[in-house]
Every structure is written in C-alpha cells, then in structure tokens.
Amino acid sequence: MDMATHRLVKVCVVGAGMSGLAAARELRREGLAVTVMEQRGDVGGQWLYDPRTDGGDPLGAAAPVKVHSSVYASVRLISPRECMGFSDFQFVPRPGRDARRFPGHREVLRYLRDFCAAFGLADAVRINIRVVRVAMAPREAGGGGPGCSDVKWLVRSVRLDPGRGEEGWPTEEVFDAVVVANGHYSQPRLPSIEGMEVWPRRQLHSHSYRVPDPFRGEAVVVVGCGESGLDVATELCGVAKEVHLVAKSVEDATTPSPMMSKLLANHAGIRLHPPVDRLREDGTVAFANGSVAVADTVIYCTGYTYSIPFLDTAGLVTVDGSRVGPLYEHTFPPSLAPSLSFVGVPMRVFAPWFFEAQARWAALALSGRAALPPEEEMLRAVREDYRAREAAGVPAYHTHAIPRRRPQCTALHADACTDGDSPSSSAARTARSC
C-alpha cells in the first residue's frame, strides 16, 4: 500500500486498554482521525477491575467469554512503577493515591485514565460499544488484490446497555484502517486432563477467580505455578483447609526452584505436587507420582489463548489460540499492511514501552512517513522466525514471546504478562523481586 499517494484518514482502534490508548495517541500525533471502540464502560482494559465472573461458565470454555477482565482483587505489580510508564508520561506517585513502588491494579487504572486525559483522547473513545465484525469492505470496481491501496474495512458494532445486559441494533462504518488492540488475557487456556468432564466437584479457571472467601474450609487444587498460580495458592492459605499446588513437571515438584522453595518455606499450608494424572469421579485428584488428594475445587491457572472473534480476513490472518499470524514483527500482516495492524500481541515485554513503539510504527506507516518492506520479504521474515523458534524448541503458544539477551524484571499485567499467565500480586512479587 503506497501511503504517499493514498493518505488514510479514518482509523478504528478496537480496545481502550493500555495498547489501544497507546495506538490512539500515536495515530493522532500523525494527524489521523481516530475512533476507539471499547466494549466496557471506561478505559483501562484488563486494569478495569470487574467483580463479576462468567458464573455460568467458570472454566471459560465458551468463546468468547462474557466477562473481559481477569484481574482479581489483590493484584499488584511485580515490577516497579518505573517500568510501567509511557516514555513521555511516567508512572509517578500522586498525592492522596497509592504511592507504593509496586502499586495495586486501581492505581494502574488511574494512571491510564490520567494518560487518556493528558493527551485528550477521551473524545475519541466510544464506550459500551462492542465490535462484532471487522472485514474488508467490498472493493471498488477495478480494485486489486489484498494489500492494494483500495483496501478499506467494514466495522460492525453494537451499543451495549450495561444495566440491562442488552445490545442495540448493529451499526456499520467504513474505515481506512483498523488497529486491533483487544488484549489477550481473557479467553482461558485449559489443560487436557483425563476426567475433567466427569469430575463431580467445582472446577474453574483463574479468569473467574476474584477473592479467596468462597473457598473457605475447602481442599483446593491449584494447577499451575505461574504468577497467578502462586498468588491464588498463597491467598487460599488463609481460608482453605488444604492447598495443593501442581507443578509443571515431576522434576519441578521434586527439586523446587529457589523461588518456589522460598514460597513453600513461608507458607507451610501449601503442598507441592507433580502434574495431575487424572480427575476421578469420586472427587479425588490423582497425581503423576501416584499420590492422591481429596479436593472440593480445582482452579486452573494455566494462562490464556489469543481470541479475536470479530476479525474476518478471509483466511489472510489466522488466530489459532497459540498465535496470530502471519504477523511481521508481531505487528503487521504482510498481505494487509499497513491498513491492518496489531498492537499488544507480544508477551514478555515492557508493555507500555513496547506497545508505544508498535503504535508509533503503525501510525508512521499509515501516514506514509515510514515504509514497510515488500510483502514477500515480510512473509519470509515471519517464516524464518517460526523456523528458528521451532528449532529452539519454543512451543507454539510462545510464538509472540519476545526473547531477551539477559534477564530483566518485567512489568507483569494483564495486557502483557511475562509467562502467558494472568495478572499477579504480592506473592509472586515477593518471591521473584527484581
């Protein structure tokens, strides 16, 4: 697409979380007309805490989930606020607010609201608007193939009534470009464990966990030792009768890491187990080493999958849960660049800075001030990245994890968690202080 001869005017950004706000700010800086569509009642994305859960589907097996946020009540950053600010709008303590270096989720939300106000983005954001379909608009007569300058996007949306849970009539608008920034920490990734479908007691994903009180006096099995698994297990120690924490492998359970050993030493109520072998119909949980626990609840802290149910590109971009692709540098689909871009897909990044860089790149490409490589060159780069990751033994669900040359502390939050897990609070922060 030659942006020098075809200046895009109208750009739709899907989502008003951290990545969507970053995109809106950078697009406006390039003089583009921006409309941000946000399905919830305020900006903030995952950081907008919602006490509700998918009560009828606590495993989150249906897609898409009804409740977007996966943040639980105790979530705090595990990296200092210095790592969480945009380059020109630092996350500094403000009078009368949570001034801790590792603040809670409410302070992060306040920061994002401050960012929105400081750069005058509120008038671009339409709240309580759910995007239900994004597809290429019918081409004009004589139009070329995908990626040509005549590509436009038909965006269908509905207005939500939060009080009644009702949707209005669909509205369709045509945009010159779309930036997908809907996050990827809402749709649970569930393990495949024998007996899950017949186990008679409560099962849920950490997406539906908010506070520990509902598990008072229970024996709970927590599957997963990522940040959220550690947090949930630690919180449950104060109310549950028993807490069984399931490691990723037999080796991890037999020889715990220093971090895990420290956590177990500080929380004697947590029992570490190897992976679950199966769930039995009598309500017991059998582990890989032959041990068995009687449990009331199993909580799966097993991360999230990519879900973009509204996107229809006729197969040019696929979303299989583990990856979105092909994406050049995790941002542009080669055959549709730059009219379609993605901000916020990568994992294991300094989220504000990385998303800001992605957004700036997309904005420059759309304004014609930055040129992208030819389509075939971008496709070749994506294929080479896939091959290199496969050769290194990187699982497909880490396709969008950005490798580091050396260990760094990472700002963990719902839009860009370090381990493909959900937001984390004080337990993980204490165990792996950076």
From TrEMBL:
Root EC class: oxidoreductase
Function: Catalyzes the conversion of methylthioalkyl glucosinolates of any chain length into methylsulfinylalkyl glucosinolates.
SUPFAM superfamilies recorded: FAD/NAD(P)-binding domain
Keyword Signal: no
Entry cofactors: FAD
InterPro entries per record: FAD/NAD-bd_sf, Flavin_mOase, Flavin_mOase-like, FMO-like
Superkingdom classification of source: Eukaryota
Pfam families documented for this protein: FMO-like
Stated name of the protein: Flavin-containing monooxygenase
Transmembrane segments: none
EC annotation from Swiss-Prot or TrEMBL: 1.-.-.-
Any one Gene Ontology molecular-function term assigned to this protein's record: N,N-dimethylaniline monooxygenase activity
Entry similarity comment: Belongs to the FMO family.
Keywords associated with the record: FAD, Flavoprotein, Monooxygenase, NADP, Oxidoreductase
Flavoprotein in keyword set: yes
